[in-house]
Write a structure and sequence with these properties.
Length: 53
């Protein structure tokens, strides 16, 4: 698959951001959690763009 390595890296980063966001929400770090959720969504969009090529 084209861009397989980049997609794998982005998947890892997206998952990390989602996991971190859940932890941060539990610790009442809402601003940081929101930032991580935004980053994860951006990573997912990039993944979809690469898969579409």
């Amino acid at each position: 698959m084209k861009h397989a390595a980049a997609i794998a890296q982005l998947e890892t980063h997206a998952s990390n951001c989602e996991n971190n966001a859940a932890i941060q929400e539990a610790e009442a770090q809402y601003e940081d959690a929101a930032n991580n959720r935004t980053n994860a969504a951006d990573y997912r969009k990039a993944i979809e763009a690469l898969r579409a090529e």
